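Quick review question:
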């Protein structure tokens, strides 16, 4: 056979359809009509056939690659739709980015979705092929406009990394499209006969101009991204400084009741909502410009699809039928994705609409400082030079200043361009509002009821908004939020709390209602450790261990066990929150929490404890007692602990450590229960033991969940500005779910224990051990209800009088006996004097705190004298002696259906006193002592030669000048003239304000 030539011989006047080359019979029929059927020509045809055959093989999977592109596009669409639903659900019509954000995963999916414009090897000869490729460019513009606000959710490092990655993707896409524009591959078309039509003027004009427009749009969006990133870096610093200032001024509620917690969460909710970096980005000029650009891109995409709607079967690329799927899916994505960017163009309507607001938006040449301040800081900063040459430093410094100066100018140009584009929706808003107001005016003219429209009282609205406006964070001080915006933010909090109320843990509440105190905390673990190494305790592990013991009792009914499991499962969710939020997290604490979660999963799902199967029900003839079950569990745990002890330190891993922690907890708790029953353990039934275990679990849960108010307060304040809004949202959700729990447990709060120690379970036994001596005496209850003296306060004189009486005793028992002798049998006259003092004890000029402490001390002394006074009588005596200033508060309390406790009365009276003090100061500050009035009085006094000075100067009238005092008529003239001067001053001020407006 002859050697195949190294190059094919060109054939002229022959049109070969690729489909013909795949069929040998038709191939030879075409060959018959060839003019030169030489060997070289046959070899050339054979090579061409070989190439087409391989090309056919390689192009077979291309339709499935097209489906892969369509799936990536569908994934992006679903994320954008999820953001739309999230915005509608939370009444945030500026649609924050929660699901479709800029990160490594989304950039990868976006790169797959826009593969068609990046494909340089495959021709797109069909109308559908060309429309799909151009539609991918429009889809890319829509996605970029959608994820722009997500830049505000990143820290500085993530922001720079993602902007660089997006820039590489966009520049690569633009370069590939420019190559295709230059080569003309975007304007080729093959007709039905197989001929390439490269000079169809209409086709070239349409499909040659549109790619250039898309390239310009992509580059403009990329510049907007870079410009917004620089502004976000500085705006976050401004918002953070304002947040910290507001946080410093805000006082944490002392007694964390549900109402105070709700108000506390509301304040931080306002700060997080108005100071959200995403919201500030959505209201910026760059975001508005991107929305307008996205809308124009969508219009262009619609034009492309409508022009090719009749040619949906004209696909001739290797992607074949998948091009139709890509075209339709990306068109739907473009339409759905335009909603959010277009809605963000009107996000600035959240501010008060005024002439100043309109002027700030129309004045496009003004560039705020935060747009360029970051570049200015970089320009003024020093760069560490590796070279010690002075000339090199001068060159680099000057080059840096030159480059950054150009960047500042470019940044200002982009901002001005964006403001010019953003004027389009602003003008439409102005026209719409003008037409709306004119329509209302016309309707009022022809309507009888239009004259008496109900207008809200401006003072009432101002009073409501004033409380919320204290916590508003604004990037620009001259732009104020509208009242409807603050109401909407506050309403969203109410909706969230109401929704969370429906998710309250009902099973946990049933369990907690059986707890009235905290005796289980100090009794669950009283055994010294088996090993020298001891780990700090955690709340969840003893709860899980006690539940395991309860599940090991085979004679207990399944419904009771299931009810306990459901309650503990709900409680562990909040126990974990307490441990993670309030405790200082160490490696040992992390191990404990991790082991507790793993152990609970094994118990709840598989009914096993460290691989040992727990019995579900008692078999026939089972005679195991509760003591035997406890002894079996204790021996099993002890063997596991000893096994870990026998291991070398180098061979111990995380599993062995976790195994030791769980086994040690089981050993300690079972041993403690056995010791508590002494020799009577065999007489204890499984039902009694189950009830005791349930009580211990309940009390430990109650002791832990008493810290939930502190968890809510801590979640309201977080250091990271990007996570602040989500943290406050979690706090509001937690408050709604745990309202009943907090109300149930708040009256059991132990005031003798430092609140900082409440989250630590290892601190609780010390509390109960300290009060062990008093637990069988009534004085313990009295001390629990009395005011405990802080360390920084001086002791009460009564306590000083007690000290000499017990200073000579040697034991605590002798001290107690001596105190009992002194105070157990008081005289009748002493009791009568205390009762008289309680009935007739006016407050006079004392503060509420001092007065209530005095009344409480009298009641405590009566209780020591075996004449206790209940809370209701004490409240009556307090309200009787408190004075007329608190008459309104007393009437409101007496009108209540239920009685009020003394502690609640104390909180309300203190709050009312603070309110009255502020009101008094405000009334004094608003008293008419203006400068003009004082000057007028001084002028008249000087004219009439009256030796009187103002009260502010503190000078009284001398005795020898009394004869020079004016007559009553002159005093009347003086008052009238002073009033006239004051009114004239107010009138001039109003005229000046009107002229300035």
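Suggested answer, residue by residue:
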């Amino acid at each position: 056979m002859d050697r195949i030539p190294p190059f094919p011989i060109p054939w002229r006047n022959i049109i070969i359809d690729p489909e013909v080359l795949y069929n040998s019979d038709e191939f030879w029929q075409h060959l018959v009509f060839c003019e030169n059927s030489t060997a070289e020509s046959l070899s050339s045809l054979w090579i061409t056939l070989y190439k087409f055959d391989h090309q056919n093989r390689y192009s077979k999977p291309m339709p499935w690659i097209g489906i892969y592109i369509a799936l990536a596009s569908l994934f992006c669409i679903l994320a954008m739709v999820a953001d739309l639903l999230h915005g509608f659900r939370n009444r945030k019509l500026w649609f924050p980015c929660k699901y479709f954000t800029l990160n490594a995963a989304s950039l990868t999916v976006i790169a797959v979705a826009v593969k068609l414009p990046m494909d340089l090897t495959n021709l797109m000869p069909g109308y559908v092929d060309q429309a799909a490729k151009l539609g991918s460019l429009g889809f890319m513009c829509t996605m970029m406009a959608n994820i722009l606000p997500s830049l505000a959710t990143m820290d500085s490092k993530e922001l720079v990394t993602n902007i660089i990655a997006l820039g590489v993707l966009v520049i690569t896409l633009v370069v590939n499209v420019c190559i295709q524009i230059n080569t003309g591959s975007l304007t080729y078309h093959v007709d039905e006969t197989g001929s390439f039509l490269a000079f169809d003027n209409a086709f070239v004009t349409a499909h040659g101009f549109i790619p250039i427009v898309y390239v310009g749009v992509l580059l403009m969006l990329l510049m907007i991204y870079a410009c917004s990133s620089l502004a976000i870096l500085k705006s976050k610093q401004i918002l953070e400084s304002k947040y910290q200032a507001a946080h410093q001024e805000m006082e944490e509620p002392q007694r964390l009741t549900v109402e105070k917690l709700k108000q506390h969460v509301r304040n931080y909710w306002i700060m997080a909502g108005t100071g959200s970096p995403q919201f500030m980005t959505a209201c910026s000029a760059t975001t508005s410009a991107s929305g307008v650009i996205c809308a124009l891109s969508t219009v262009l995409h619609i034009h492309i699809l409508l022009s090719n709607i009749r040619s949906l079967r004209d696909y001739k690329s290797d992607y074949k039928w998948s091009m139709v799927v890509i075209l339709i899916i990306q068109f739907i994505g473009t339409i759905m994705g335009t909603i959010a960017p277009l809605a963000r163009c009107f996000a600035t309507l959240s501010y008060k609409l005024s002439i100043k607001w309109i002027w700030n938006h129309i004045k496009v040449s003004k560039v705020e400082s935060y747009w360029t301040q970051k570049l200015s800081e970089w320009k003024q900063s020093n760069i560490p030079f590796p070279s010690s040459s002075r000339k090199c430093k001068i060159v680099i410094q000057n080059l840096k200043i030159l480059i950054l100066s150009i960047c500042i100018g470019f940044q200002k140009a982009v901002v001005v361009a964006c403001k010019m584009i953003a004027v389009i929706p602003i003008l439409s808003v102005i026209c719409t509002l003008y037409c709306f107001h004119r329509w209302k005016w016309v309707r009022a003219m022809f309507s009888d009821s239009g004259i008496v429209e109900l207008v809200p009282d401006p003072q009432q609205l101002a009073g409501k908004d004033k409380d919320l406006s204290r916590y508003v964070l604004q990037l620009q001080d001259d732009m104020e939020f509208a009242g409807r915006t603050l109401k909407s933010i506050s309403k969203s909090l109410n909706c969230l709390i109401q929704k969370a109320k429906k998710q309250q843990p009902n099973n946990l509440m049933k369990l907690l209602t059986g707890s009235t105190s905290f005796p289980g905390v100090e009794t669950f673990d009283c055994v010294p450790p088996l090993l020298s190494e001891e780990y700090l305790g955690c709340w969840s592990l003893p709860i899980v261990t006690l539940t395991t013991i309860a599940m090991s009792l085979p004679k207990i009914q399944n419904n009771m066990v299931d009810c306990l499991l459901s309650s503990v499962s709900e409680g562990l969710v909040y126990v974990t929150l307490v441990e993670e939020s309030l405790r200082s997290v160490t490696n040992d604490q992390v191990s404990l929490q991790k082991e507790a979660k793993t152990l609970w999963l094994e118990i709840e799902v598989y009914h096993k404890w460290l691989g040992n199967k727990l019995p579900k029900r008692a078999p026939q003839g089972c005679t195991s007692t509760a003591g035997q079950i406890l002894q079996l569990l204790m021996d099993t745990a002890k063997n596991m602990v000893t096994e870990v002890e026998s291991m070398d330190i180098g061979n111990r891993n995380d599993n062995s450590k976790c195994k030791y922690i769980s086994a040690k907890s089981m050993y300690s708790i079972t041993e403690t229960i056995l010791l508590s029953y002494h020799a009577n353990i065999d007489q204890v039934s499984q039902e009694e033991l189950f009830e005791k275990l349930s009580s211990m679990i309940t009390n430990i849960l109650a002791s832990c969940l008493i810290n939930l108010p502190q968890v809510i307060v801590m979640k309201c304040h977080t250091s990271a500005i990007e996570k602040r809004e989500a943290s406050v949202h979690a706090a509001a959700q937690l408050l709604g779910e745990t309202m009943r729990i907090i109300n149930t447990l708040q009256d059991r709060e132990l005031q003798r224990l430092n609140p900082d120690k409440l989250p630590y379970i290892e601190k609780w036994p010390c509390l109960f051990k300290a009060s062990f001596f008093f637990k069988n005496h009534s004085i313990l209850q009295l001390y629990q209800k009395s005011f405990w003296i802080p360390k920084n306060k001086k002791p009460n004189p009564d306590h000083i009088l007690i000290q000499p009486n017990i200073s000579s005793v040697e034991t605590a028992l002798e001290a107690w006996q001596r105190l009992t002798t002194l105070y157990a049998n008081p005289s009748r006259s002493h009791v009568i004097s205390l009762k008289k003092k309680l009935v007739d004890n006016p407050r006079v000029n004392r503060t509420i705190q001092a007065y209530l402490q005095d009344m409480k001390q009298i009641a405590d002394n009566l209780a020591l004298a075996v004449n206790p006074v209940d809370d209701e009588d004490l409240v009556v005596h307090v309200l009787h002696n408190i004075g007329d200033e608190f008459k309104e508060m007393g009437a409101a309390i007496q009108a209540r259906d239920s009685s009020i406790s003394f502690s609640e009365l104390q909180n309300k009276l203190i709050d009312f006193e603070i309110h009255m003090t502020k009101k008094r100061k405000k009334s004094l500050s608003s008293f008419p002592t203006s400068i003009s009035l004082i000057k007028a009085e001084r002028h008249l006094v000087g004219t009439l030669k009256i030796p009187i000075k103002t009260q502010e100067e503190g000078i009284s009238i001398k005795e020898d000048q009394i004869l020079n005092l004016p007559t009553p008529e002159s005093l009347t003239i003086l008052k009238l003239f002073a009033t006239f001067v004051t009114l004239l001053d107010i009138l001039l001020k109003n005229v000046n304000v009107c002229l300035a407006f």
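Why it works: The two ends are 100 Å apart (CA to CA). The first helix runs from residue 18 to 21.
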